[in-house]
Design a protein that fits this description.
12 helices; globular; eight-stranded parallel beta barrel; Lyase, Ornithine Decarboxylase, Chain A, domain 1; binds ligand LLP; nine-stranded mixed beta sheet; TIM Barrel; alpha/beta; single chain
Amino acid sequence: MNRNMLHYENGQLHMEGVALESIAGQLDTPFYCYSRGAIEHQVDSCKLAFGRIGASIHYAVKANANLAVLDLMARSGLGADIVSAGELQRVLAAGIDPRRVIFSGVGKRDEELLAALRAGVGQFNVESLPELVQLAELCRENGLRASVSVRVNPDVRAATHRHITTGTRGSKFGIDEEQLETALRMVMDSEGLDLRGLALHIGSQIVDAEPYRQACLKMRDWVQRYRARGFPVTHLDLGGGFGIDYGAGRGLDYEVVADLAQQLLGDLGVEIAVEPGRSLVGPAGILVSRAIYRKEADPTPFLILDAGMNDLLRPALYQASHELLPVRQPVDDRQEQCHVVGPICESSDLFLRDARVPPIAAGDLVVMLQAGAYGAVMASVYNSRPLVAEVMVDGQRFQTVRETISTEQMMAWESVLEQGEETDLDQL
Ligand code: LLP
């Protein structure tokens, strides 16, 4: 836990200078709560590490796309890594310079490519040969140009959850090494395409430096090989994936990756880019929730929260665990064993199995830590629950940066079938 961001004061958990109980007094639970200071702290340490090696930082918007978060990234001078026209709209609204935007993704539609071309997006990371053909065609038809990096699948195994590993053979991401030369040739031969370089992203929540070392070595090899064959490779995009500490005591320091990149790629005279998402915002966010019931059960009681898997999907989807803290400071070290669950009608709506937590009673507020990344953005309205609100704390004040979207608001977009002429089946 980041001690500056969260601390107990007068028996109450505070984020920066604000008691969480006072926010919960004004807002329905559950809600996400972000610390401006903690985001800026992460951004600063990222800039320090990668600035040293002259690398550019492109925030992976998918981790947390709230405009208040993007605004902080824009003010810090970061670029962005986007994967949809929706994310493009958001980064433009936040005032991020489109030339500092990288467009990633395996399935970009024509409208999305066109919107990005028209906005002047600085780099298209192309992930397949058909996408290259399509992008070239759109450029030709519309008299536009695109700077292209080819995303390669480096076939590097990153020890992370199988759903978030992306750089191994057989994954849908990137172009296989055997197709790389063809792809580079296609870029060179296409009227509207300018070759920028190579890109990769080996997975997410990686806490070990070794896969990055392997990936950099492969990059080095490709740069040397393809430059020798006449391809002007000037940019290398190393993706994101830098792991954070979810409680197991391990994360990956920006410095470690920056040092590796400098050591293994520094002499090539290429511009390096990184696309961190989780590490910039994950540690800066919590999910605040209220316990509804304590249900005694044999052998393990359940603590039933008002937050569910629709609000924070990571535990159900990846068996991820987010540490839990009570908002009222525990008076002693007593702990109880329980399963921490949500109210959704699914067995996988389980946040912590066999957790040891301080005694928590019905009505008590709790927080789940490290929830700033892939939390609110993955929330849904399953079970006809409202879409969870988001709050940002800044020193002594807080602001709701996304209102709750209510079931009433959702229903306003729905309609029942209009009554047509009755068809008499007997007459057919
Ligand atoms: N660049 C590309 C091309 C990516 O696909 C991703 C994440 C990133 C950058 C940022 O990676 P990060 O620094 O955030 O690890 N929902 C999952 C994570 C999915 C990550 C997808 N790609 C989770 O909650 O763990």
